[in-house]
Amino acid sequence: MSVTIDIAGLPAERIVFAPSPLAELCMALHALSQPAHHPRLTSWTTATSASLDPCLADRLLEADFLWRSSFSDIFMPFAGIPGGSGLPAATLAEELDVLDRLDDERFVGAALEHCRLALYNEGGGPSPLKDPAARARALELAAARGPRQLHFSVRLLDDTAAVRVWLRRLLEDCDEAFFARTWERLEPGQSADARHKAELLRRKGLAAALKDVSTALGVDEGLTTITADKMVHGTATATDPRIGSGLVFVPTNFGWPHLLVLHAPEWRPVVHYPLGTPEPASGPGSVELLQLRMEALAHPMRMMLCRSLARAPYTTSELANVHGITAPEVSRHLAVLKRAGLMHTRRQGRYAQHQLDLGTVARIGSDFIEGILR
Length: 374
Known about the structure:
Mean pLDDT: 87
Order of helices and strands: EEHHHHHHHHHEEEEEEEEHHHHEEHH
Oligomer: single chain
Number of strands: 12
């Protein structure tokens, strides 16, 4: 399993390393919503959450699926503007201006990415703004996420312009509340890392630069294809004439263990890579329990299911849709994971939602956590 980026014919000067304040705000919001993914950020997430105005915290909950379980491409709008520079802007305000330039079709498709993961590589299928069946399906999947997600999705489809204004104001309020201070502290280090990797690319070549970004990245001998070792299939091209050529590497201090690759059709590819190294793993429990859990995780499909379940609660039908298998097959795999104590289930209205127990899985080892969350 991997995501590949076709770079055949891409000029070296079109491979760029640059920080993105909007992309980093996305990762900061993700860390706040999923602190279990980021134990090294506990001090920051705890202090920031405690200081949030309750009204702002409630507003964040309305749209948290934009950053909680998947990372919406709207946080990298520079990659989706045909004929644009294809590069992040220097300030959050400038990047929000670029976000305003995304047409409604792209904006809504990216905002509803969490409802359309199975169609991501195909461009999302028919637009829910125009196709009644696509709208009904998107809302059905949003409902399985919960009432907040459904309410937001209905608002998004019924009054896209108003939601875009609401979202921009929300992100501006986050900047005022906590992100501006955070970005002021992080930006110099990210810019320095970007300069270092650009110089490494110039002096030692692409293979060396990729290795410095992440051991999960590699390039073929002909320098035509970059491969990201991820538990997902995907392809992208850095020379699509419909959108323009280019490949951007964006650093993040909030990212580990996630290595993100934007590979949506008709968007420039972006690699969002974490800075820093993981903490050492703690030891497992009993040998018998470890054996039971490793056997549960040995099946490739259960590994894929764990990738989804680590990010957010999913229903059986959602998992079947995303992974292209039947609901009974999903149920059988989930039963194995549950017997091993690796997941839990809770009711959300008429839906039963399943989620990986990250605390338990973390005791198996950080390599597994990094692999499924990459």
